[in-house]
Design brief:
This protein is α/β, with parallel strands linked by helices. The chain has two domains: 37-143 and 267-289, Response regulator (Rossmann fold, 3-Layer(aba) Sandwich); 147-265 and 298-326, Rossmann fold (3-Layer(aba) Sandwich). Helix content is 46%, strand content 18%. It is built from 13 helices and twelve strands. The chain has helices at residues 2-32, 50-60, 80-86, 98-107, 147-158, 176-191, 203-215, 227-231, 233-243, 252-256, 267-282, 304-309, 316-321; strands spanning 37-42, 69-72, 92-95, 113-118, 137-141, 164-169, 194-199, 220-223, 247-249, 261-265, 298-303, 324-326. A seven-stranded mixed sheet has the order 7-6-8-9-10-11-12, sandwiched between helices. Strand 3 (92-95), helix 4 (98-107) and strand 4 form a beta-alpha-beta unit. Helix 2 packs parallel to helix 11 (267-282) and helix 5 (147-158) crosses helix 6. The chain is elongated and about 65 Å long.
């Protein structure tokens, strides 16, 4: 009887040991399971493959969708998609452009934001300074000092006969238009050109601005930063071609759409930088402590077919400077 009691006691103790081991393994398993991070992504139109570059960079940094990362998107169209995401249960929202940042901030001022590209991150109140944003946002400002003057100079180099340059502005928010206009006005006399701004905030206003440019006899066009012009780039490029107006644009996709030339940053690279911002924030950094950057480099793209249609010949020195020459 005594040995039977000992055996029963040993059996119970062994069961308890198995239970403890199971609990220990379960606890260890939970401890080893990666924390799933949740972010929002609102890119709008993405013809330059920014979304793919963003996701590839996050994978390289160790974030795997479906494993330790959930990327939420929204079916709401346009900039309101960012507002929709800002109300969701996510740790931060990545937006491609200024209008999306503005709607996200209005929907949830406390949501950390990474803005891939914006004209005037300080003037639009997302940051106190470039070096020390101080709020809930950071990202890349696409208007470094002198970029508009550089575009105006490149246009004059490509088309020396240009004397009256239309400044087509669809720049949203505050400060971006004024910065570009001041830059162009300062550079214009040195280049021997007169400039005039034409502003538009809707498709109807854009069409009206293009009609005014033609009626005013402008013989050159510089397109400012702006989502409205980006979305309607085919309309603008075809207008310039039909009117035989040499034009320079703010994004490479304009040249691919048939535009004469662009001086533009690499938008896919800016999405890669945005992924690095995300990584830092998910690791504990505050968005407002991460310095805002300008694009690392601008690229000159020339379209030879567009030049031929305008009866222009790019100077050899300009072609030699080009980063991309489209046939």
């Amino acid at each position: 009887m005594k040995s039977s009691g000992i055996r029963r006691r040993s059996f119970v103790e062994s069961l308890a040991g198995v239970g403890c081991a199971t609990l220990t393994l379960s606890s260890a398993s939970r401890a080893q399971s990666p924390r799933v991070r949740r972010i929002g992504l609102s890119l709008g139109e993405d013809p330059e493959g920014g979304g793919a570059a963003f996701r590839e960079t996050l994978r390289a940094l160790g974030y795997v969708e479906g494993d330790n990362l959930v990327i939420k998107t929204s079916s709401v169209p346009g900039p309101n998609s960012a507002a929709d995401l800002a109300r969701m249960d996510v740790e931060l929202v990545v937006v491609q452009a200024l209008p999306y940042g503005l709607t996200a901030r209005a929907a949830n001022p406390d949501m950390p934001l990474v803005i891939v590209t914006t004209p005037g991150i300080v003037s639009n109140g997302f940051a106190r300074t470039m070096e020390h944003p101080g709020g809930n946002a950071t990202g890349i400002d696409e208007l470094p000092p002198g970029v508009t003057a550089k575009r105006l100079g490149l246009l004059k180099a490509a088309a020396p006969a240009v004397s009256k340059v239309a400044l087509l502005s669809t720049t949203p928010g505050r400060g971006g238009h004024e910065t570009q206009l001041a830059d162009a006005l300062k550079a214009a006399p040195k280049l021997g050109v007169a400039v005039k701004a034409y502003r538009a905030t809707s498709l109807a206003e854009l069409e009206s601005a293009l009609a005014s440019i033609a009626a005013d006899g402008m013989n050159g066009l510089l397109n400012f930063q702006g989502g409205l012009s980006y979305l309607n780039r085919q309309l603008i490029v075809e207008f310039a071609g039909k009117q035989r107006i040499p034009a320079i644009y703010q994004a490479t996709v304009f040249a691919r759409a048939g535009g004469l030339m662009t001086w533009a940053p690499d938008l896919a690279e800016q999405h890669r930088e945005a992924a690095h911002y995300v990584d830092k924030i998910l690791k504990g950094a505050k968005a407002g402590d991460l310095p805002v950057r300008y694009p690392a480099r601008y690229f000159l793209t020339l379209n030879m077919t567009a030049a031929k249609n305008l009866r222009l010949t790019f100077p050899p020195a300009l072609v030699a400077k080009a980063d991309r020459v489209l046939p």
